[in-house]
Write a structure and sequence with these properties.
This protein has helices spanning 4-20, 31-34, 37-54, 61-82, 89-104, 110-113, 117-121, 124-136, 142-155, 157-167, 171-184, 194-212, 221-240, 244-256, 265-278, 283-296, 300-303, 315-341, 343-348, 350-357, 372-392, 410-413, 416-431, 434-437, 441-453, 487-495, 497-505, 520-528, 534-545, 566-573, and strands spanning 459-462, 478-481, 514-519, 550-556, 559-564. By secondary structure, the protein is mostly helical. α4 (61-82) packs parallel to α11 (171-184), α10 crosses α11 and α20 runs antiparallel to α21 (372-392).
């Protein structure tokens, strides 16, 4: 029972840290400097306790699982507890999509919703969440949004463990791989989003294929049942996300080429479902996007380019970016070392090695809105974590065979610094930019009042989309984010902010009105991503506040709302 001691001590330190953490003011290092020092001590104790627990090959799986769940709680539940509102503007956007389905009760076309119609063409995740909201009798998904990173991270454990158990019976390798997956998954795609659930379903399909579809195609009632289960899991993947089905199809195609998994039924089923959906429900989006998608094929430089306005600026943002790169680089280097060092394991787990090599191919296909490199890392991580764990463990036992012998003493102490370093590096990588991800209650209230009171057809202008409810009631309100214009236009706005913005906003038909919203979330994004300096932001604020074109209609410590006087702009133009 000794593993209970470090685990209990780590969770006690974490609980104290959560109670003692104040996020009223966040600097450029986000949660890294805001969290109480007891948090770091608890995380270190947790990592050391896990390593001393998992090193025993005869230790029951329950203790390793308990440590992994403790890690996920420390990693993912902290933000849900210390922040009074959900993180990430994209999560708020997805809540708006669920709100649209609840309001309209159906899907709408691109002519009615514009760019937001893409979510109606892949509605699986949002329709499921809308049904959950109705069944729970609540108004929205805000509470679930805060806890979704923990929920989605726990859900992925089951298929991940099944995949690893396909290739080894070594409990140390399985759970060390799971641990590295959890600490290496800093990309942030576990938030309230279709891709978070699609990743779990993707790994579930892979686990089913690896374990239930070996060799040539098999027949019989039992195989028919597993085929039905497989297709049932594939359907929500195809209906919920654009990219994950592509990765799934390529992965299943690669598996079908191997001797061990020559059954092509999973691959053909995925292709059929993907084609059926994309040639019907999602065809309008694909028809419009296809020329741009084809133009990006093979343009690797452009596909990995982040573009203007997404360059980390400031010590905190740069440090977080380098910590994330170092963490991913360490995991990938360990994976390479593990594959080279454990040749017998590489041969036995060759399908997993091939699956880890599939995602980098996507870089040559598309930029995916400057996010493809992050998605590649996410899809590589399951396979990379397994072989990274192999680099930290001794070469004892037979892959897929009996339980290995106890490890030599040196394998207890040498990998421990690596486990500690990667576990601690997760925090700045994952939460180092919380200054631009967190929206205080005052900001959420300010934007909420604007969205609910604005007449139909109104325009809400803002610097960027980084604020809560940025897409609130998007089916009846229009939006304009002036920092997303090209650099030349932004320079013209900075030269004469109030007048230039007023001219851009004045063409709003009655009964709609034009509003300009400036909040601290937008400011954090503008400064930390290199869009505006602090001086430039203050210039915009001062110009608008003193302009005769704008009238302040609401404000609090998190920002202000200005209404445009269209008549004043038109008279001045004449």
């Amino acid at each position: 029972m000794w593993p209970a001691g470090p685990l209990a001590a780590a969770l006690a330190l974490w609980a104290y840290a959560v109670r003692a953490t104040d996020v009223t003011t966040l600097d450029d290092f986000g949660l890294v400097t805001a969290v109480h020092p007891a948090y770091w001590a608890g995380l270190a104790v947790l990592a050391a306790g896990f390593w001393f627990t998992v090193r025993r090959p005869d230790r029951a799986d329950g203790w390793s699982l308990a440590y992994v769940l403790g890690l996920l709680v420390v990693q993912r539940a902290t933000q849900a507890l210390v922040y009074p509102t959900p993180l990430y503007a994209w999560a708020w956007k997805h809540d708006a999509v669920v709100g649209h389905l609840l309001t309209d009760g159906g899907l709408r076309t691109g002519a009615e919703l514009g760019d937001m119609a893409v979510y109606d063409q892949w509605p699986g995740f949002f329709a499921g969440q809308a049904a959950a909201v109705r069944l729970a009798g609540v108004e929205n998904t805000l509470t679930l949004m805060s806890w979704w990173p923990l929920v989605s991270s726990v859900l992925v454990l089951a298929p991940l463990v099944l995949i690893y158990r396909t290739f080894t019976q070594d409990r140390r390798l399985i759970w060390t791989g799971v641990w590295i997956f959890c600490v290496g998954n800093w990309v942030g795609q576990d938030y309230f989003s279709p891709q978070s659930l699609a990743l779990t379903l993707h790994l579930t399909v892979i686990a089913l294929v690896l374990r239930r579809f070996p060799g040539a195609r098999q027949h019989g009632p039992r195989q028919a049942v597993w085929t039905t289960v497989l297709i049932t899991v594939m359907i929500p993947v195809v209906l919920s996300h654009q990219l994950t089905p592509v990765v799934l199809i390529v992965s299943l195609g690669v598996l079908a080429l191997t001797r061990r998994h020559r059954d092509r039924l999973p691959f053909l089923a995925a292709v059929a479902l993907f084609a059926a959906w994309n040639l019907t429900a999602s065809l309008p989006f694909l028809s419009a996007a296809l020329p741009e998608m084809l133009a990006s094929v093979g343009d690797i430089g452009a596909n990995v380019e982040t573009g203007y306005g997404t360059t980390p600026t400031g010590t905190g943002a740069v440090t977080a970016s380098w910590a994330a790169r170092a963490l991913s680089g360490t995991v990938l280097l360990l994976a390479l070392l593990g594959a080279l060092r454990r040749r017998e394991l590489s041969r036995h787990a060759r399908p997993l090695l091939l699956l880890a090599g599939v995602p980098p191919l996507l870089i040559a296909a598309n930029g995916y809105g400057s996010e493809m490199i992050f998605r590649v890392l996410m899809f590589m991580l399951p396979g990379a974590a397994f072989f990274a764990a192999a680099a930290l463990l001794p070469r004892t036992g037979v892959p897929g065979g009996t339980m290995p012998r106890p490890a030599p003493a040196r394998f207890l102490w040498l990998p421990l610094p690596v486990v500690l370093a990667t576990t601690l590096a997760f925090v700045p990588s994952y939460a180092g930019k919380d200054r631009l991800s967190y929206f205080p209650p005052a900001e959420a209230a300010l934007v909420g009042d604007l969205v609910e009171s604005a007449p139909d057809g109104s325009l809400v202008a803002a610097a960027n989309r980084n604020y809560p409810r940025a897409y609130g009631d998007y089916w009846r309100l229009d939006h304009y984010w002036f920092l997303e214009e090209d650099r030349a236009k932004v320079e013209r706005i900075l030269a004469r902010p109030a007048r230039t913005l007023a001219l851009d906003m004045k063409d709003v038909a009655e009964p709609g009105r034009a509003y300009l919203l400036l909040t601290q979330g937008q400011r954090a994004d503008a400064e930390m991503n290199g869009r505006l300096t602090d001086a430039e932001w203050r210039r915009v604020e001062k110009s608008v506040a003193t302009s005769p074109y704008f009238r302040r209609v609401a404000h609090n410590r998190a920002g202000a709302v200005y209404e445009l006087d269209v008549r004043a702009v038109e008279e001045d133009a004449r």
